[in-house]
Automatic annotation (TrEMBL):
It comes from Hymenobacter mellowenesis. This is DUF58 domain-containing protein. The chain crosses the membrane at residues 9-29. InterPro entries: DUF58, vWFA_dom_sf. Residues 203-374 form the DUF58 domain. It comes from the Bacteria. Keywords: Membrane, Transmembrane, Transmembrane helix. PANTHER family: BLL2464 PROTEIN (PTHR33608), SLR2013 PROTEIN (PTHR33608:SF3).
Length: 449
């Protein structure tokens, strides 16, 4: 059914009903009320005729369209646009209800707009998914009313559209653009001074003010000076060592199901993996992937050929957390069997207690002997907020003492890993991507990979 009555219609009906009740006691009011009723009926019929009268060219009088990407980015704000076109000869008042997927649990997708005849109005809003998978969009419902506003006509468009939610490729593109223009510092990536010349020699070029004097090639300068060249001073130009392997190891065990700001730790790790892998490819390194839990997961060999990032995205899209404890012995066996060349291994996992980390320490130490291992685990930000809140009662003091114990254990895990020469990164979930990129660039600058 496309015919609906408006609030104005029912309000006028209520006023007429009250008028007739009053006219029962004041007979002189009956005549004017009958005239008012007749005018109301005529206006209602005229309003319906305006909305439902067939047009000469037989086009739909109101056209609507939802414009969005073929896929949504998980954990990011995705733009959605609704186009409304009025083909009536008069202005219309519209109420647009977009039937978004139930996963969003939103009830605020009703938009009101006035559209003049022959014009188009654009409505913009954003959706932020927090889980990967397929999202089913319903119809785009447009309720149009004439200037009389007594009845409304419904138009339905875009019915039954399924959109997949992928790891945050929007975040990846943002970092990619900033990396291309050397503006990563705008999102918190640090400028890291290179230590020595742990890079590959590329060429000799003329000296320009600002070059490091230690890079001057004195022998080549002496030869050029002997030929009478005006710009005899030359320097050695180096480039970053390339084709190094960078593997992201993602824990899919139950410890990664913990949610922060709507996203699970696994989704934070997946988003960070996509961004870091893209940055590694931009730095001419090879990016690979290995997922694990209580059983082997997906594996993608490190590479940098065209299309490799798309393969990585498709694999990450299908990853789900498990409910069992992670088997780190299996991880070590898989790494030893699959990754033969020394590589940077970025291990995304989570340790809540020092004892829990110590049980996995033998396998971490073995991997660190053959590879450069970075263990990334997460700070409990909700615990930090609890610690910063004022303690007004004895119970609050007791709870904060327990919370401080857990926070201290996280710091002890960092120190314990450092003691065995294993690099670690304790980070808040929201800062995971930036902090991981910083570590990767630091390792590159220090020539560790």
């Amino acid at each position: 059914m496309s015919f609906f009555l408006t609030r104005r219609f029912f309000l006028l009906v209520a006023i007429l009903a009250i008028g007739f009740i009053v006219a029962f006691f004041l007979p002189w009011l009956l005549g004017p009320m009958q005239i008012a009723l007749g005018v109301f009926v005529v206006l209602a019929l005229l309003d319906a005729l305006l909305l439902y009268a067939p047009s000469k060219n037989k086009t739909v009088p109101v056209f609507g369209r939802r414009v969005m990407g073929d896929k949504l980015a998980n954990g990011s704000d995705n733009d959605v646009q609704i186009y409304l076109e009025n083909r009536y000869r008069f202005s219309i008042q519209t109420e647009t209800i977009d039937e978004i997927p139930h996963q969003f649990q939103r009830r605020d997708v009703l938009f009101r707009a006035t559209v003049k005849p022959g014009e188009t109005t654009i409505i913009n809003y954003q959706l932020r998914p927090t889980k990967r998978g397929e999202y089913e969009f319903g119809a785009l419902n447009i309720y149009a009313a004439s200037p009389l506003g007594l009845v409304r006509r419904r138009f339905r468009y875009e019915q039954g559209r399924t959109v997949p939610v992928y790891p945050s490729f929007l975040q990846m593109r943002q970092y990619e653009l900033l990396a291309i223009h050397n503006r990563l510092t705008e999102v918190g990536v640090k400028r890291i001074r290179r230590v020595g010349h742990s890079m590959e020699f590329e060429q000799i070029r003329p000296y320009v003010p600002g070059d490091d004097p230690r890079s001057i090639n004195w022998k080549a300068t002496a030869r050029r000076a002997g030929t009478g060249a005006a710009d005899a001073l030359v320097v050695n130009h180096f480039q970053d060592e390339r084709a190094q392997q960078v593997y992201c190891l993602i824990d899919k065990g139950r410890v990664m199901r913990m949610p922060f700001d709507g996203l699970s730790l696994l989704d934070y790790a997946i988003n960070a993996t996509l961004v870091v892998s893209n940055i590694a490819l931009l730095k001419h390194d090879k990016a690979g992937l290995l997922t694990f839990s209580n059983q082997p997961g997906a594996t993608l060999a490190a590479d940098r050929r065209p299309g490799h990032l798309l393969k990585l995205l498709e694999i990450l899209y299908r990853q789900k957390t498990k409910y069992l404890e992670t088997d780190f012995e299996l991880l070590y066996a898989t790494v030893r069997a699959r990754i033969k060349q020394r590589s940077l291994l970025i291990l995304f996992t989570n340790f809540e207690t020092l004892h829990g980390m110590q049980r996995q320490l033998p396998y971490l130490r073995r991997m660190s002997k053959d590879h450069l291992l970075l263990v990334v685990f997460f700070e409990n930000t909700e615990l930090r907020e609890f610690l910063e809140a004022p303690a007004d009662t004895t119970e609050d003091v007791y709870n904060q003492t327990i919370a401080e114990k857990f926070a201290q254990e996280k710091r002890q895990i960092v120190l314990e890993l450092q003691r065995y020469g294993i690099y670690s990164l304790l980070t808040a979930p929201k800062d995971l991507t930036v902090n991981t990129i910083n570590k990767y660039l630091e390792f590159k600058a220090r020539g560790l990979i």
